Amino acid sequence: MLKRMLAGIFVLLMALPALASADEARITSVDATSWIVGSDPTAYIPAKMIDGDETTSYQFSLKTTPLGQAYVYFYLAGPSDVSTLWIKNGFWRFSNGYDQYLRNCRVKRMTVDFRYSGSGYFTDPVTVTLPDDKTRADWTQVNLGSHSNVTAVRFQILDVYTGSKYKNDVCISEVRFSDGSSVDLYGLAIDKLATRDGPGTQYNGKGTYSVKGQYIKVLSRAWDSRNGIWWVKCEIPYHGEIRVLWTGYKRFDPNTLPLESIPIENFSAGTTAAPVTAAPQTAAPVQTGTWRDAYRQFVTSGTYRQHITCSMPEMYETFTQRNTAYDSIALYDLNGDGTPELLILSEYGVEQADVFTYSGGSVRRLGTMGGDNFFQYIFYYPGTGYTELFAALGGPAMDIRSCKIQNGVLTETKVAFARTNADGDGIVGIDMYVNDGSLFAMLYATFVGGRDASQQLQWFSISGLRTDSDWNGFFNSDIR
Asked: What SS3 state is found at 160?
């Protein structure tokens, strides 16, 4: 079948059939960055995810929309409480004797974030790793945490399980959201499950089960203080029956079963064995009181979005409706006090860099630099009265501005204007706004000489900062 991307964005309103439960958040419309169009132009549209038919699916192609750039939007009937994602991932259809689930790609990892009533932004991102459910006995349920007054939910597709036949076609069959008080949890067993009748080696052994590679339902967890590990209580299928037993959490893939999603059980076995006291956490608590911890929490929680507004009101609609409004960050110490400021770059609509600083144990906003041009190059000119300058790149025009913090306030002074060629890579002339001949000469020499006296800000994708190693690389990127 000839497949191609449908240019533009197409929205189809379609009410759900009968609701699955009273706590379901009704989806009224669905949108996506792109989808595949074949001989039937509506065969793979986003609305197939809410048509109540698991044998139809939404599909997009990685050839036209790479991972990280593929977004799916679900718009709700009104402000709703959302805590659970229900999804039938992949293409749930057998046709011509083939299982289309296996032949096509299905979502492996994605970020889910939320738009709340009165807001134009998606915030509070949650990264989800979906199981590759080849048995497809029922919906996959994912705990998203508690979210109130949600008007829309967005998926950003980050990784996929590759199909055996169609290695670029990514499919989702059905999606629902609810505020269910309980969610069935499943984890991928990465080893045989050695079991006991309690959470610890002091309890009776109950056999080892060869379920490696299977998804096992997990009920609760308990802390084994004797051995310093977590145990989980799970339902293990065995010859047509279900055995409820304990095994070590380490035998499950944590990407499919995050520890914090499992309810804690204060286990007690009566008089047969001493109870094990549940510990509240396995990892050390996040340290506070440092700019690194504060910036990391500020970004990963999406809190920064609450402080950013469009600097050009006439561009507000474009600024808020793009797929990713703010997705890059950098560090630069604007006042030389040893604590770098956090720059958050908007790359869509209006290009602006919003500036935040860490003081008094918290992060606060200083202001916006640029407006319609972001800052990339930094120039040092000792002895000229300007210790650092930012070059704002905007196509064939380039502004040179001095930006610094004075008395806790961000100040921005435009000191020069440079015109480049149409490609923005060659200087035609420089018009000075400040009467400083030495600054003029050094600027000109720097541009012509290949910017030997400049350094470039290192921008990091927010979606790419997931591990401690990623964040350490970001924190070590400050060039002052």
From this structure: strand
